[in-house]
Amino acid sequence: MRAGFVLGELGTGLRRNLSMAVSVILVTMISMYLLGLGLLAQRQVDTMKDYWYDRVQVSIFLCVEGSQYAACSGKATTPTQREQIKAQLEQMKPPVKEIFYESQADAFKRFKEQFKNSPLAEQATERAFADSFRVSLTDAGKYDVIVSSFSGAPGVGRVQDQKQLLDRFFAFMNAVSWGAIALSALMVLCAVLLMATTIRQTAFSRRRETGIMRLVGASNATIQLPFVLETLVSALVGASLAMGLLWATVSYGIGGYLSKALMDTAFIGMTDVFAVAPWVVGGVAIVAVLTSWFTLRRYLRV
Amino acid sequence: MILFDAVTKTYPKATRPALSEVSLEVERGEFVFIVGSSGSGKSTLLRLAIREERATSGAVLVAGRELRTLPDRRVPMLRREIGTVFQDFRLLPNKSVFQNVAFALQVIGKSRALIRQTVPETLRVVGLEGKEKRLPHQLSGGEQQRVAIARAIVNKPTILLADEPTGNLDPATSRAIVELLDRINRSGTTVVVATHDHEMVNEFRRRVIELDAGKLVRDEADGDYGKTTSAIPVVRIDEGDSDAEDGTPDAGSAGGER
Ligand SMILES: Nc1ncnc2c1ncn2[C@@H]1O[C@H](COP(=O)(O)OP(=O)(O)OP(=O)(O)O)[C@@H](O)[C@H]1O
Ligand SMILES: [Mg+2]
């Protein structure tokens, strides 16, 4: 069949069936937007993991006079105890990579610097802080070695692992992204059913046309092509709109707002949208073609 | 050209066969009328010839192909060699006369140049020059049937099948349509016409095949419509008689359009 004729018929078909085409476009758009958000959230988690797991530290808080930590029983860590802890850490390389000492005063300064825009900075007192060893690890997974050797040791108030905090946050992000993906799967199901219904309806309203095509000896491919193309075009328009929305979300939501509000972390960017887009659009194309093919086999006698 | 050998067709769930043990042969270039009362199996016979239905038993040969074993993917090629015309014209209402005829060529992939040349030619053959731009509803019944015939012959088929082509037309128009079919036949196309129109059959004196309850009961060259045909009384003096009969819902052609 000639391309000009096919395109002409495609245009007429879409125009005659505009409301159906629009509904397929919208449902595809929403489902693919949700799917895209879910996938991007996953990539955000991965990005943050990469960023944070390199920076994750285990903090060994020491005791000060009148410490809030129960393990200290109100007594400050003696210089000998401190040296002992330091020596023990030095022996544990690797997994210990680097050891920093931060005094109570330094910790207080750093806090005030970090929260200089917040009322917290004015309320906090130096007494709430403690001297600490901050230990970075070659492998973030080895933190429990540190925890088990130092918690309860003389002069140690508390061992805190940042990774634990982060993991809780990542687990939450993961759950949210899987929620979005599950919801999008449901929407994809809706899209498939809507495409199938649209094709059935269209096949019925064009039965005279397809009847004539069969009669004059048009091939099955020729008879089915307009239906497949109309579905495919609607679905692809929907998927493209979804990618546009996703682009806007990342560009304005993350690039324009979040990354300025939270300077201290890594965010996904446009490259991630471009990495996700071909899979989403390709997936939509496959779903549209398979759906039309199965529906036509059932509802369009050739 | 067309050969039926002991063909029986029983529709699913039917109690009696629509065609039983029908054998006939139509040679290249022949003109044949198929007559018989309503429900005698005329449309079924034509539907078997275009592989719209498959025979339950027996062999159907059309244009050199055995249709009972012809694979589905070969059916379009068969149908390109057969033109088909129906009582209800089956034109596309929002396409013009030209577009309706061109459609038959477009969907089998013919080039625009060929279409631009062949369609006007064919419209001239059926006597519709000057009406290319009209829509079907702007034409009379006879003109609409001419469009349908043009569409059926535009690809130069070797066989033309017509199922009650004059069923919706008055006698004068019917006559013109059959004359057109006759002219097409004389240019070499094999023509088979299923009809209730006894005046036409009697006047044209061509080969007549008569079916009765699915059986072939008569096959004669130079035949007439016959007297045994109808279960429904035929009133010969009134020219509208065949319309009264054909106006009833036709299970045959409705079924063909699914
Ligand atoms: N699709 C079908 N399914 C079941 N039975 C059918 C079908 N089509 C036709 N029949 C039956 O087969 C028989 C022959 O029908 P057919 O349409 O061939 O008759 P016909 O000679 O064309 O009649 P008419 O002159 O009214 O058009 C009838 O009894 C009819 O009820
Ligand atoms: Mg009939």
Protein model, in words:
The complex is a heterodimer of chains A (302) and B (258). With 302 residues, chain A is α+β, with helices and mostly antiparallel strands. Chain A has two domains: 3-52 and 167-299, no CATH class; 55-164, Alpha-Beta Plaits (2-Layer Sandwich). Chain A is built from ten helices and four strands. A four-stranded antiparallel beta sheet of chain A has the order 2-3-1-4. In chain A, helix 1 packs across helix 9 (220-261), helix 2 packs antiparallel against helix 10 and helix 7 packs parallel to helix 10 (270-299). The longest helix of chain A has 44 residues, at 162-205. Chain A starts with a helix and ends with a helix. The relative contact order of chain A is 0.17. Chain B is α/β, with parallel strands linked by helices and 258 residues long. Chain B has a domain at 90-156. In chain B, 33% of the residues lie in helices and 22% in strands. A six-stranded mixed beta sheet of chain B has the order 6-7-8-3-9-10, with helices on both faces. In chain B, strands 2-1-4-5 form a four-stranded antiparallel beta sheet, with helices on one face. In chain B, strand 9 (207-212) and strand 10 (215-220) form a beta hairpin. The relative contact order of chain B is 0.19. Residues 229-235 and 238-258 of chain B have low confidence and may be disordered. The A-B interface holds A 1-2, 4-5, 207-209, 211-220, 222-223, 301-302 and B 50, 72-73, 75-81, 84, 90, 92, 103-104, 106-109, 111-112, 151, 155, 256-258.
